[in-house]
Structure formats: structure tokens, C-alpha cells
Design goal:
- The protein has 19 helices and ten strands.
- It is an alpha/beta fold and about 425 residues long.
- The protein folds into two domains: about 5-360, TIM Barrel, CATH 3.20.20; about 365-424, no CATH class.
- The strands form two sheets. Strands 3-4-5-6-7-8-9-10 form an eight-stranded parallel barrel, surrounded by seven helices. Strands 1-2 form a two-stranded antiparallel sheet.
- The longest helix is centred in the C-terminal third of the chain and has 22 residues, at about 340-360.
- The protein is globular and about 80 Å long.
- The chain starts with a helix and ends with a helix.
Length: about 425
């Protein structure tokens, strides 16, 4: 039985109990929200790790994307990215590899990981077709579902599947005046296949086949936004909303089948539209967990998109988004390196935690209060301990000429905290 099946039977599983303990919530509450589809717990039956819940009333979780490309494929480097992502506090990692031995890379990442692992199966199939001298338009439907099952059998906990890129949604896209067009890799692959073959998206047409595979391995479906905006000018257009409405329909069908599902959200959205996007997704998808890439609030900051993503992520999560996919400084420029992964995870965690405070998530404010108490006492070791990035905090302090003194080089003798402690 899947976790959703168990919840539907009124059972609090060990996995649900661990999530409840991690969040400081009653196990029955977690069970009830799993049952309603408002919480998912991605965990393949072939894996064993400390599970994390994603959804209503839980801490906002953070995902880190890693993976090779056809231009650069180094398994050890990807494992280093995995380790630094986990060490920096990522709750999950997605392997988006398209270069090298994809099966070996995926299996190595799964074996090494102590957090949830996600993939996008169509990437692997498209790569295999290319190596065989075939185009994505040559894809057979059976090949796609066979690739999906391989990922699930290997132990992947959640898969991104772009089921909402329907012929109706593509018609809406063609009527639009988008600047960025389709920026989703998976969405563009399916759109090319559909247009060339004049057929419906197989992930939509044969959705029940997908549900059978997911149920067999207790894999969570991450219903991908293949028509997400890739420019802020394209946000919240008819094609995006058409796809979102379809994802709502498909999330309900998944729940009825006993398969957990979450909804992927837009990547480039101006500040004034972020809250509306989140509320609309929650409304159309019956409160299913919402997973956003950023979103980026401006298109002009290559090299700093971990910052634009954190700004958008904080707003989205405060409005109700449950899962933030990090954005690294390398976004739009090149394949991320290990240092980019670390910066991306920390930026997304800052956004997630800021939202947790705003939403009143249990224990979130306590962390800040402990930091503030250490600052009041000029307790540097205590501050390092509570810092979201202890390594950077300690290193930056030690670069100061007065690192061994109570005050810092910013204020010196004019330190407000020192004066307050002495005189007030």
C-alpha cells in the first residue's frame, strides 16, 4: 500500500509518525493531511532514509538540482554536489543528468543520498534517443513509460512528469504573444513530439498507466509545469493557467488512485503576481503541495539569480508554497559547480525560513530568538552555532582584525550592544 492508501484506511504509518515527530505535530494531523492530498511524503519503497513531509502546516522544504550535461559529465563531481547540498541543508536533490552513463549516475546518487531524490525521466529517454541517432519526435509511447518505470525501480522518490502539456494548452500558447516561449526542457520535448505527430500528450492520454507505475513503487508525482513562464512578461498567461487547471484535475485522479501528487509552479513571476499565482494553484488543485522554481522576480540578474529566486521564493512560500527549488548563481549561464550548489541551497533556505516565520510554523521564530540572545551577549560561538551557514559566519569574522575581541570592526567602541550592556 502507498502512504496515501494507508492514510485513506485511517492508519498512521511509521513514516507519517516520523514526519510528525520531525515537525512537532500530532501524527493524526499528518495522516489526515496526507489523506486529503495536502501533505505528501516522497519515499520509494526501495529506499530507507529519514522521511520529510511537504505541504500544509509543515516547514517549507528546499530542493537542489544537480546533474551532468552532454558537455560536462563527471560522476564524482555530481556526488560532491550531492554532499554539499545535503551538508548545506537541502531536503531533497533532483538528478537532472543528460550526459555520461545516466543509469550509473542515477544509481550512484540514490545510493549515496540520505534525502529524497527526484528525476525527470523524459530527459534520460531524450538522451538515449539522441545517442541512437533518433529525434525526440521518433519516441514510442512504450519507451517513455519504460523509462519512467526504470527510474522508479531504481529507487527515485518523486518524478517530474509534464502531464498538463495538452493539445488544448498548446493551442493557448500559440495564441499568446510570449517573449520566452517554452523554457521547460521536458515541456518542449513533449510539445515537439505532439506537434510533429499530431497526437495528444501520452502522459495525459495514458495517465492511468503512469498512476499504476507510481503506485507500485510509492513514488510521488511532481506534476510539472511544462508551460511555465520563462520571462516575467509571460507570467499568468492563458497557457500557464490552462495547464494548471489540468494539473488540478490530474492531482484529484492521482489521489483517488492512492498516488501522492504535488504541483509544480512558475519560474519567472513579477512580485505583484506571486501571491495570486500561489492562491490560484492552491484553489485549482485542492490544496495540493505547491513546488516552485524560485520564482525569479526579474530577468536582468544573471550571476545573481540565487538572489532573485530567494526574493520570489520567500514571497511564494509566505503565500502558501510548500517546496522551493533552489536557483544558483549559474542559472541561465552554465552548469552549476559545487560552490554554486552551496550558495543556491543557503539562499533558498533563507527564503524558506523567512516564510516559516511569517506563517507561524512551530519553532521557526525560536531559532531567530536564540540568535538574538547570543548577539545581545556578544557570544560569537553561540552566533556561529545558530547561523544558517556557520562556516561562512566564522570565516568572515576571522577575517576581521578584532575577531578575538567582543566588538566587531563595523562599530568598534561605538558598538550599540556593548554600550547597552554596560549602561542599561
Amino acid at each position: 500500500m502507498t502512504q496515501l492508501n494507508l492514510a485513506q484506511e485511517g492508519i498512521v504509518s511509521d513514516v507519517m509518525r516520523k514526519v510528525a515527530e520531525d515537525e512537532g505535530l500530532p501524527p493524526e494531523l499528518v495522516r489526515d493531511r496526507v489523506k486529503s492530498g495536502r501533505i505528501v511524503i516522497p519515499m520509494n519503497i526501495n529506499r530507507d532514509f529519514d522521511p520529510k513531509g511537504i505541504g500544509e502546516g509543515l516547514r517549507v522544504k528546499v530542493n537542489a538540482n544537480i546533474g551532468t550535461s552532454s558537455h560536462h559529465a563527471d560522476l564524482e563531481e555530481e556526488l560532491d554536489k550531492l554532499r554539499i547540498a545535503v551538508a548545506s541543508g537541502a531536503d531533497s536533490v533532483m538528478d537532472l543528468s543528460t550526459g555520461g552513463d545516466l543509469s550509473a549516475i542515477r544509481k550512484a546518487i540514490i545510493a549515496e543520498s540520505c534525502v529524497m531524490i527526484g528525476t525527470v525521466p523524459i530527459y534520460g529517454l531524450a538522451t538515449a534517443l539522441d545517442r541512437a541517432g533518433r529525434e525526440i519526435t521518433d519516441m514510442e509511447v512504450d519507451e517513455l513509460f519504460e523509462e519512467i518505470e526504470r527510474h522508479c525501480e531504481d529507487g527515485v522518490d518523486f518524478i517530474t512528469v509534464h502531464c498538463g502539456v495538452t493539445r488544448r494548452a498548446l493551442a493557448k500558447l500559440k495564441e499568446s504573444n510570449r517573449i520566452g516561449g517554452i523554457v521547460s526542457r521536458g515541456g518542449s520535448l513533449l510539445a515537439a513530439w505532439m506537434t510533429h505527430n499530431q497526437r495528444e500528450n501520452p502522459l495525459y492520454e495514458y495517465y492511468d498507466r503512469l498512476l499504476h507505475i507510481a503506485a507500485k513503487y510509492n513514488v510521488t508525482l511532481s506534476l510539472g509545469d511544462g508551460l511555465r513562464p520563462g520571462a516575467i512578461a509571460d507570467a499568468t498567461d492563458a497557457a500557464q493557467i490552462e495547464e494548471l487547471a489540468t494539473l488540478g484535475e490530474l492531482s484529484r485522479r492521482a489521489r483517488e488512485f492512492g498516488v501522492q501528487a504535488m504541483i509544480e509552479g512558475p519560474g519567472h513571476v513579477p512580485l505583484d503576481q506571486i501571491e495570486a499565482n500561489v492562491l490560484l494553484a492552491k484553489r485549482l488543485c485542492d490544496g495540493a503541495p505547491f513546488y516552485v522554481l524560485g520564482p525569479l522576480t526579474t530577468d536582468i540578474a544573471p550571476g545573481y539569480d540565487h538572489i532573485t529566486g530567494a526574493i520570489g521564493g520567500a514571497l511564494a512560500a509566505a503565500a502558501g508554497a510548500d517546496f522551493l527549488c533552489y536557483v544558483t548563481p549559474a542559472e541561465h549561464l552554465r552548469l552549476p559547480e559545487v560552490k554554486d550548489v552551496r550558495e543556491g541551497v543557503i539562499a533558498a533556505r533563507i527564503a524558506a525560513h523567512s516564510a516559516d516565520i511569517a506563517k507561524g510554523i512551530k519553532g521557526a521564530m525560536d531559532w531567530d530568538n536564540r540568535m538574538s540572545a547570543h548577539r545581545k551577549k556578544l557570544n560569537w560561538e553561540g552566533m556561529y552555532k545558530e547561523a544558517i551557514d556557520p562556516f561562512l559566519a566564522r570565516r568572515t569574522r576571522r577575517e576581521s582584525g578584532n575577531y578575538d575581541k567582543l566588538v566587531c570592526t563595523m562599530c568598534g567602541k561605538l558598538c550599540s550592544i556593548k554600550l547597552t550592556n554596560e549602561y542599561l
